[in-house]
Amino acid sequence: MTAHAISRLAIDDRNLFIHHPDGNAVSAADVAALSPRLEGLRAKIKTWQQATQCSFLNLPAITDLNEIKRQGQRIARTFKRVVVFGIGGSSLGGEMLVRTLGDRDPKTVAVRFYDNVDPSTLDELNRLDIKETLFLVISKSGNTAETLAQFLTMLPRMEHALGDDAVGQHSLFITENKQGALYELAQRLAVPTIVHPPIGGRYSVLSVVGLLPAYIAGVDIDGVMEGARAMARRCADPDILQNPAFYNGAAQYLHAEHGRTISVVMPYADNMRFIVNWFRQLWAESLGKIDAQGRHRGLTPTEAHGVTDQHSQLQLLLEGPDDKLVTFLSNPSFRYLGLRIPMRFQDIPAIKALAGHTIGELFVSELKATRTTLTRRGRPNRTLTLLDHDAYAIGELIVLLEMETVVVAELMGVDPFDQPAVEESKTLTREYLACVTHAHDLED
Ligand code: PA5
Predict the structure, then answer these.
(1) DSSP class of residue 342?
(2) In sequence order, which residues have a C-beta less than 8 Å from that of residue 430 and are 6 or more positions away?
(3) 87 C-alpha to ligand 1 centroid (Å)
(4) 423 assigned to some structural domain
(5) What is the pTM of this model?
(6) Strands (E), 77-191
(7) Does pLDDT of 1 surpass 70?
(8) N or C: fewer beta carbons within 10 Å in the chain?
(9) What is the CATH number of the domain that holds 311?
C-alpha cells in the first residue's frame, strides 16, 4: 500500500517495508500473503456489523447521539463542572476526546477526570464547590474498587454540602451490571443511571462512555462519529490491500514475528499525548495474553514524545535493539504556526540555521529528520497525519487503531476483548485491605 489519504487521516505506511541492513525486513508481499489467515475475522466483522449487534465496529452507527446531547445539554445548563470518576476503559477514551478536542472556551463546562486513587491528587476535590458540580461515575462492572472508593469518599462531603436528598441530583452513573455495587448505590441514593453498552471498556469510547463527557466539554461528537463511520466502512473491507487496518495490523504482526514487539507511538503534538494514553491500554490489555498453545503473547506499547524525547529516547530507537516499530503522529498545520526566530545573531553558528524560521518549521523539520534517520538505519516506522483539532480525523483514528488491535489479536490467536489475568490482583487488593486495621499494617 502506498501513501494515501483516507479522508482527513493520512496513513503513510511505506517505511514499514524499508530495506534492513541484516535482511530482517517485512515486505508488502509478506503482508498480502497473510490474507487467508484473516478469513475468520472477516466472518466476525460481518456479525459485528449487523444492525442488532453492539460491537466496537458498530458503535459509530448505532450510538444514539440525540440522547447523549439531551443529557449533555441538561448537565451544561445546570453545572459549571463535571468530575468523572472511572478507570481504564471507563476514563481513557473520554479523557482523550476532552483533552484533544475539547473546547477551551472558559464558558464551557469544565470536565475533569480522576482515574487514580492517589490521595494527594484526590485532595484537590476538597476545594471543589460541590453545589456547582456533577459527579459522573462510570463503571461497566459497577464493582471497581477505585471508582467506588472515589465516589464513596465524596459522598459525605456531598451530603454535607447538598443535603442527603440532593446527592442524586448531583450524580449520574453509567453502569451495565444490575448486580454491581454501583447499580445498588444508584437505587439507594436515587441516582439516575445510564446503561453502559455491552462492550468492553477499552472499546467503549464511541458510546455514551466517551461521548457524554466529550459533548459536555464542547467536542463536536457528530464530527467524531462521522469520521468513525467512514473508517468503520473501510475497516470492514475484506481486501487486505484496501483495508488499512488489515494491512497495517498485519504488517505490525509480521514485524513482531521478526522480533519487533515494542510499539512506540511518537506524537509530535503535545495534546496528542492523550491519544497515546488511550492507545496504550487498548494495545496492552487486548494483546497481552496466553494463546491456545500456552505461549505468552503481546506487544508492548510505549510512548516517545516529539521532540522532547529526541533528547531522551532517540539514541535507543536508532542504535538500541531492533525490537521496536515507531508510529509517528503528526499535525500538518504546525509548519505554519509559531513565532518566528529573529534574523539576528546569525554570526553565531548554532543560531544561523534557526534564524528566520518559525517554531513550527523547526518542529516539523525535527520530525522529518527523526523519521529519515530511523529509516536509513532500517528501523521500521509509519506516520499518521491529522489535525489535532479535527474531530472527523480523530474519529477515523480511533476506529483504525481499534481494528488494527483486533487484527493483530486475530493473527496472534488471542482474544482482544477479555482481560482474564487482572482479576487476581483485584482479589488480592481486597484481601490485603481485609487485613488492615491500621495504615502501618501495609508496611512491606
Ligand atoms: O477495558 C477494560 O475492560 C478495563 O480496562 C476496564 O475499563 C476497567 O478495568 C474498569 O472497569 P469498569 O468499567 O468495570 O469499572
Answers:
(1) P
(2) 145
(3) 6
(4) no
(5) 0.95
(6) 81-85, 110-114, 133-138, 171-175
(7) no
(8) C
(9) 3.40.50.10490
Residues 368 and 307 in one domain: yes
Domain of 308, in residue numbers: 4-43+240-412
Mean pLDDT of 215-243: 97
Q: pLDDT, tens digit, for every residue of 275-305?
A: 999 999 999 999 999 999 999 999 999 999 9
How much is the pLDDT for 4? 46
**Domain for residue 427, yes or no?**
no
Whether 52 maps to a domain, the answer reads: no
Q: Does residue 156 sit in the same domain as residue 185?
A: yes
Q: What is the pLDDT of residues 118-167, one digit of tens each?
A: 999 999 999 999 999 999 999 999 999 999 999 999 999 999 999 988 99
Count how many domains the chain has: 2
Q: Are residues 11 and 103 in the same domain?
A: no
What is the distance in A from the centroid of ligand 1 to the CA of 143?
10
Q: Is the pLDDT of residue 426 over 90?
A: no
Is there an atom of ligand 1 within 6 Å of 416 CB? Answer: no
The whole-number pLDDT of residue 5 equals 44
Catalytic residue among 95, 146, 176, 285, which?
285
Asked whether residue 157 is assigned to any structural domain, the reply reads: yes
Q: Is the CB of 144 under 6 A from ligand 1?
A: yes
Please choose from 115, 141, 174 the residue to mutate so as to test ligand 1's pocket, defined by most ligand atoms within 8 A of CB. Answer: 141
Catalytic residue among 19, 296, 311, 440: 311
Instruction: Provide the β-strand partners of residue 358.
Output: 340
Reading the block at residue 122, the C-alpha cell is: 484526590
